[in-house]
Structure formats: C-alpha cells, structure tokens
C-alpha cells in the first residue's frame, strides 16, 4: 500500500510537461558515453569475457590457446580444462574532446606463471587530427592479422578462438609505441592504412622472455560493402631468452673451446663455434607477410587468411592459412574451418663426431640431438578441421560449441604445449570446446 | 450484466490491441527522420547505415552527423537495421563490440522511444534518428531513402 501511494504521489508530482523532459534526461543519463556538443570529458565502461572449457584426447601434451602464455592446458594436465579460453576484460574509454581520447583495457587471463593476474592489454591516448587521420600513443594492439584487433573478444569473432595454425604464428598481441591510422573513402570504397612502430616485452612460460624490438607493422584494408581485403607486413627484431636456449648456446660455446684445445679437431671446433650465432635468437630479424579476405554477403560468412613468416635463426620459416565458411540462421551460425601450418624443419647435422674420442663423441651427439629437438620444437606443423556452432541466445552473449580434429606433424608437436617425453608425433587428436562469450 | 458487458468490451479491446500490435510489428514501417529545419532531404540506405554503424561521421554535404539510436530490444531498432543494412540485432551487437574493443568507436546514444527521438531532434541534441511512421509529426522531417 505504502508503495502504491508513493507511486501515486510520484505520478502526481510529474506533470505531463515535465514528463518529456524527465524522460529525455533519464534516457540521456542512462548512457555515460554521451558527449555530443558538450566536450567535457566523458567516460564509458565496457566489458567482455569468455567462460570456456576444452577437452582433448591427447594425454601426452596440452592443448593451449597460446603457447607463449599458457604453461599447460587440456589433455595431459587435465582432460577438461577451464583455463584455456576463459578470460575477463574491462575497458574504459575517455573522450576528452572531439580530438582527444584515451583507452585503457585490462584483461584477466591465465598467465605464463599459471596465475590469473590482471594485465594491461591496451593503454593509449588517441589524437584525431581530422576525419581521416588519427595517431595513437602508448600500448596498442599489434594487428598482425585480420581479427588480431578482437582476438581476445570472443563475442566479436565467429569462433571460440582464432584458428591457431595462423594466429599463433605471432602470439604477441600488443605493442608499446605509436601508430598512425589513415582512412580514406573513395565513393563506396573505404581504405584504411595503418602504420605501427614500437616494441614488446613478453614473459614466457619456463622463466623465459621474448622481446620484439623495432617492430614495424604496415597494413592496408580495403572495404567495400560486405567485403574486406587486407594486406599486412610485419618486421621485428627478436630476442629470446629461455633456460633451454641459453643452455644450448653455452654448451656449444664450451664445446667449441674444448675442441679448439685438441690438435686435429679444429674443424669440429669451428663447426661448434658457429652454432650459437646461427640459432640463438639475439636481435634476430623476422618478417611476416599476410593477406586476408572477409566476405559477409547476406547471411553468409567467408573468411580466409594466409601468412608467411621468414626464418629467424632457431625459428623456422613457416606458412599458414585457414578458411572459414559459416551461415547465419537468425540466431544460430554453424561454421566450418580448415587450417594448416607448415614450418620447415631445419636440416642441421650439428657438429660432426667423426675423429672425436668416443667419450666426447657421445656428448657431442647428445648435444646434436638436443639441438635438433630444440629446432623441431620451434617449428610447428599441423592441420585441422573444425566444426562449430554459435548461438546468440541473448542479446549480449553467445554460446559456442566447437569440435576440432587435428592432424599433428610427424616431427613436431604442432601447436601443443607441455609436451611429455612419451609424446608421439604424427598422431591425430580430437578436441571439444564449449564457451560462452559475453559483452557488457 | 454490466460486468459481463464490461468484460466483453475489455476482451474486444485486447483483441484489437493484439491485432494492432501484430500488424504494426509485421509491417513496422520505419522512417529515417531529421529535425524539420534540417537541409537533409534524401540519403541512400548505405549512407544511413554508415552513419549509424560508425563508419561515417558526416552527411554527404560535409556537416557533422549526430545519430540517435533506439534502445536495444525496441522493435523500431531491429527493423531499422534490417532496413538499412540487412543486419540482425546480433550482427549489429557484434559489429559494435568490434569497434568498441578496438578503440575505434562508440555506438550512438540511445533513446527509449519514438517520442524521445523526436524530443532530442527538436532540441538539436542529435540530428538524425529513426521512428515508426505512425509517430511522425511536423516537428521532424522524413528523409527519402534512395
């Protein structure tokens, strides 16, 4: 009763004339991102996340979504793992005035140390010179591929995760530096040219660190109606420090010094001395070329991307592609993806054991096989077919189910991580993933 | 007797309202509107879609476009995007997620109803919106869609 009376008096208090104003005001305040002509700083908050589980039937290695970030995953560690795709992200946009804005994006996902530590994915200020040119300074996305921009925002992507054969070629997602975006319309065509320059420091699993210095990314997207065509070129200088790579370098240096002291083994010493320089990732230049096409006529979705990464010391040359076809039935979208990555395995015989004393020969051949393993580990090859379905069951969330059949390469562990001693290359593997992607 | 009569009347009213609802939602005749004083006379569906999807910040004549959306879930909103872009509500949501989370844009401000759209157009808080044709009055002008 008291409630009813209050409502009545409220209704009485609001006269029709003021009602419109009240509604207007209420509708304006419901959204924080309303700047329009009043250029006081306006803030808006957005969030996204994924709640997902992955099952893998490979019990001698782990299925992960990033070999750079995740120390373990589904398969060996746990048959079902909830820490492969799950994440939560928050973003604050600040619009200072018509030209100046800033964005901060913080993402909580499982890190290389297995902890769910929040990390700053983006933190940049953007200055819009005019309708065509804007400059961003700070931590921005490293948009190597077509959907790198939204790699973490599952809701914006058709699949649970970008096809790993291609997307894991460059597992780095952000860069500290500056980027310039130049957009121009030609009739109904829109062209966007983007240039990014900067560097990235990324902690790795197994206490390592990867640095990409002097990264330079040039990309160009052409859009027309439902079609987008994108070309990109990335170059960077890589430094990789892992206990594994450092141990190898030290071992060959020691070997070279030892052999040099033994008369008659100068040739073997010379062979050993070039190994560290040949395979250590120290200021190693790397280049990535990529092309992508996205078509969305009516209810169809077609996507295809191709990428080539050049050899950089221990990292082999690799080529990858994927293609996705989907069809939207109102709120349900089934899709099919084919993907492949082929990394060249370097033919490295190592240091010749001929003429070495037997004890030394054993050590050298152990080192050679260690080197071979290291190089094979750095060369990924696999192909897969993925069948999935996306169901937009409410307005800001989608449920996705995905079955993936993977053909692993005979020499490497493909995109798997935490590879166990009893892992047999050349196997087939099945994974099943379920995820709810949401935005708010 | 009076009670029964009243009940019949109520039932009839409900049926009529229901029919009206289905007729309007089936046909939901959406029109793009600008303030009555706006110089804009006609636009193409693509131009309107670009303005509402954050792909274009200006009208073809170079003046700044300030679009106003209707609230998510409003029939007008779904019909509008279907009309100008052929996209479903989920596709529109995914589109904006892409722009928001790449820092490339923010969706237009939203209004709760046709009445609020008109109110904000009159106030010049925004300069382009869409409403049901039935809600059009002389405060706004219908934009011819080429």
Commentary on this structure:
The complex is a heterodimer of chains A (440) and B (146). By secondary structure, chain A is an alpha+beta fold. Chain A has a domain at 53-85 and 122-237 and 281-345 and 380-439: Porin, CATH 2.40.160. Helices cover 19% and strands 46% of the residues of chain A. Chain A has six helices and 19 strands. In chain A, helix 4 (243-261) packs antiparallel against helix 5 (266-279) and helix 4 (243-261) runs antiparallel to helix 6. The longest helix of chain A has 20 residues, at 358-377. With 146 residues, chain B is α/β, with parallel strands linked by helices. Chain B has a single domain (29-145), classed as 3-Layer(aba) Sandwich (D-Maltodextrin-Binding Protein, domain 2), CATH 3.40.190. Chain B contains five helices and seven strands. Chain B has helices spanning 2-27, 45-52, 75-85, 89-100, 114-122; strands at residues 30-35, 42-43, 68-70, 109-111, 129-132, 140-142, 144-145. In chain B, the strands form three sheets. Chain B has a three-stranded antiparallel sheet with strand order 5-1-6. In chain B, helix 2 (45-52) packs across helix 3 (75-85). The longest helix of chain B has 26 residues, at 2-27. Chain B is globular and about 60 Å long. In chain B, 37% of the residues are buried. The model of chain B is unreliable at 22-27 (pLDDT under 50). The A-B interface holds A 20, 23-24, 26-28, 30-31, 33-34, 36-37, 44, 46, 48, 89, 91, 93, 95, 101, 103, 105, 122, 124, 126, 131, 136, 140-141, 149-150, 152-153, 155-156, 185, 188, 190, 225, 298, 328, 330-331, 392, 395-396, 398, 439 and B 46, 55-58, 66, 72-73, 86, 88-91, 93-94, 97-98, 100-103, 106-107, 109-113, 115-116, 119-120, 123, 125-126.
